[in-house]
Design a protein that fits this description.
Elements lengths: L2 H4 L7 H39 L3 E6 L1 E2 L3 E18 L5 E6 L6 E2 L4 E6 L1 H33 L8 H33 L2 E3 L4 E6 L6 E2 L5 E2 L5 E2 L2 E16 L11 E5 L8 E8 L9 E9 L9 E10 L5 E4 L4 E3 L2 E7 L5 E5 L1 E5 L3 E6 L6 E4 L12 E2 L25 E4 L10 E2 L1
Parallel strand pairs: 1-24, 1-25
Antiparallel strand pairs: 1-23, 2-17, 3-12, 3-16, 4-6, 4-9, 5-8, 6-7, 8-12, 10-11, 12-15, 13-14, 13-16, 14-15, 17-22, 18-19, 19-20, 19-23, 21-22, 25-26
Helix pairs in contact: 3-4
């Protein structure tokens, strides 16, 4: 082999160069495809993020207010008259004659009290009266005799005047003794506890042998006293209801209510207006209102709990929205309205009476405004939003179908406010 032949480099064949070229092309295509796919994914994610940044809202239409308003309030039933009976004299209960639940007439004896000390004082007062009367008679006779000697040398005018004045003083002593005896006689009358009016005995806290003190009742071991009896007149009953300030306009002499009590399910007792305090309680912002119920059959008992149902006229000309549609911010009470370009417009509103789940709006919105239901606190003025449908079974108001986010351009109509539940108001497609 020659030297020239040993240093010669072998040349690549044409097929090898073809393979290398094809491999480079395939690698370039793979790299370019990955770059393009990544850019497509980035663009898609950017579009999704931008779309997700736009809030989805449900809109409702304000409705006219109800023609009538209903209000259920707790009430307390009290007797027409109710009187606790205390002892006016000190002594021991000799006997009681009426137990709880007994029907009594005015003046009927409930119990008697044994008062030996008072009896002795009464006897002494009568004796003092007899003594004063005897002294008065003697003074009158003496004054009469001295007057007969008036103008003679036997007595002076001074002595006559003294005897006449003594007779007048003895007369005053008689009047004092008479009043003292009358006072003890009145106390003797209080030995009998009597019913002040026709009614029923609602409590008896006295028993035979109990010690009672004047002006008090049965004395306990701690020295406190309670009433001996309680008597209630239940031919008519008073019903006391605390009416909230928002509903104070329903109070008038024409006000009527339906009273129901737990012991008579399904029964309704008609109550009529009797009086109102005409002043609100500063702590509860309620006004005490008194109704009256006839109780001829004695079915209602004092101190019962009752539910009172009121029906009052409403104002259909005032628009209402659910409570959840209101937003309270530094600018005041507002609602979020969606304009024709699907942008948020925050409007200040004047709130009227709270109807429970709905609230009257006196000013700030119109009947055709699309109002955001349950708006989030992050909604801003002029912010773009998408309208969505109602969630089935939650706020679709009985709708049989619902969907999630609604793309721009879809036909979404605002749903009217529900009359009974603000949560029922939603959006129907």
């Amino acid at each position: 082999m020659t030297a020239t032949g040993e240093n010669q480099t072998p040349r690549m064949s044409g097929r090898g160069r073809l393979y290398i070229t094809l491999g480079g092309i395939v690698l370039a295509v793979i790299v370019a495809g990955g770059i393009i796919e990544r850019r497509v994914h980035v663009a898609h994610l950017r579009a999704v993020a931008q779309d997700a940044a736009i809030p989805r809202v449900q809109v409702i239409l304000p409705q006219q207010g109800p023609k009538t308003r209903t209000l259920d309030l707790p009430g307390n039933i009290s007797a027409w008259y109710q009187a606790p009976i205390y002892a006016q004299v000190s002594g021991y209960v000799q006997m009681w004659y009426k137990d709880i639940g007994a029907q009594v007439k005015a003046g009927e004896i409930l119990a008697t009290i044994d008062t030996p000390g008072l009896d002795a004082q009464y006897a002494a007062s009568k004796a003092n009266f007899d003594v004063a009367m005897a002294r008065y008679r003697l003074a009158v006779i003496t004054a009469k005799r001295w007057r007969a000697l008036q103008g003679t040398q036997a007595v002076s005018q001074q002595e006559v005047d003294v005897q006449v004045a003594n007779a007048e003083a003895q007369q005053a002593e008689v009047e004092a003794a008479r009043h003292e005896a009358s006072r003890y006689a009145a106390l003797i009358g209080f030995k009998q506890l009597v019913a002040p009016f026709d009614g029923v005995v609602t409590s008896r806290l006295a028993d035979v042998g109990d010690y009672v003190n004047a002006g008090g009742g049965d004395v306990s071991s701690r020295g406190t006293a309670t009433e001996l009896f309680s008597v209630a007149d239940v031919h008519r009953m008073r019903v006391f209801v605390s009416v909230p300030q928002d509903y104070a306009d329903i109070i008038s002499p024409k006000l009527e209510g339906d009273v129901s009590v737990p012991q008579y399910p399904g029964r309704v007792f008609k109550a009529k207006f009797l009086a109102t305090a005409k002043a609100f309680n500063a702590g509860t912002r309620t006004v005490t209102t008194e109704l009256v119920v006839d109780n001829d059959k004695r079915e209602l008992w004092p101190d019962s709990y009752a539910n009172v149902h009121f029906v009052a006229p409403g104002d259909p000309d005032i628009l209402i929205v659910p409570e959840g549609a209101l937003v309270f911010r530094a600018q005041g009470m507002q609602v979020a309205v969606v304009d024709a370009d699907d942008r948020i417009r925050l409007r200040n509103v004047t709130v009227g009476t709270n109807l429970g789940t709905n609230v009257q709006i006196l000013a700030g919105i119109g009947p055709k405004d699309r109002i955001v239901n349950n708006p989030s606190a992050g909604l801003l003025e002029g912010q773009k939003v998408y309208l969505v449908g109602a969630t089935q079974g939650y706020n679709d108001a009985g709708a049989t179908a619902s969907r999630g986010a609604v793309d721009k351009g879809d036909d979404v109509r605002a749903m009217p406010v529900g009359d009974s539940n603000a949560g029922d108001a939603g959006v129907r497609q």
